[in-house]
Sequence to fold (324 residues):
Amino acid sequence: MNNIKVIERILSNLTFKKDFFVVESYPNYPSNRIGIDGSGNIVILVKTINLSQSFFNDINTQNLSIYFDKRCSICINETRTIEFYSILLLKDHSLVYYFINLFEILVHKLGEKPELSEFKEEVDNLRMLFNKATVPGLKTILGLWGELFLIATCDNPVYAIHAWHKMPTDLTDFNDGELKVEVKTTTKSTRTHHFSLSQLSSIINPNTIIASILTSEIDDGLSICDLLDILNEKISSQDSYILLSKVMDVLGDKINFSSDFKFDSVTALSSKRLFRSVDIPCIKETNIPNRIRNVHFEVELDISKSIKKDIKSKFFKILNKHYV
Fold:
């Protein structure tokens, strides 16, 4: 579904012209156009159908502008013409990965020539995603990478996606209502993971497991974007949208920043182990002196206590499919 590499080649060969959209046909969706405006901003021109003669106000945000059913002067293959399109205009080029992914999810859902009112409803959701902006640290990127890797290597990624960060108040990364899973990913040489006392104390119960993953940064590894591309080939456009929305909650507009970090997927797969939370060593809260708060510590997990069977849970079986 994703044409990001093809589109990057198209965009690199375009030269902007004042007062024109310089465009090419969008790969696989020839009624639509991809290109740049007179200021060099990336644009997608969408051939919307306005049967009801609806009118919608333009939308302008920090990263994205959306214009509905506009008369456009375009230049395609050195030929100039005037046609009506709805316009998606990206102001921040670092967001091109999400821009392309979300457009292709949208057009896959609505069709190549969507009705204008349906298009407006969908791009309202897209606008909200682009309003999110955070600056993730390496710890955040590694943690997100581990969670996506677990989804990508399980037997039913769609099930895992719908169990992933279902509620903002969840103390674990996954919760299908029966089993809770907290993912810990480390680049250390030992199976040592960081815990907060408050979190670990709250999740120590028979229905919670810890997924432990070891990896390292390598030049030819997989980035978060690579994992998203792998997953998007396996799931529907609707599930891709859910997945990207959750990733956007973490990364915001810094997806390209995360692409600088690639991790060893081979080591990650061979090292993946599952542990019962009740088997994780923990400090008793009663042993903490009064007025001491925010206690954090590291635990080296005993691989002999990892589990392969004995948990009767659909989600556990899904996670265990590619267990090495």
The first helix runs from residue 4 to 12. The radius of gyration is 23 Å. The chain has a mean pLDDT of 87.
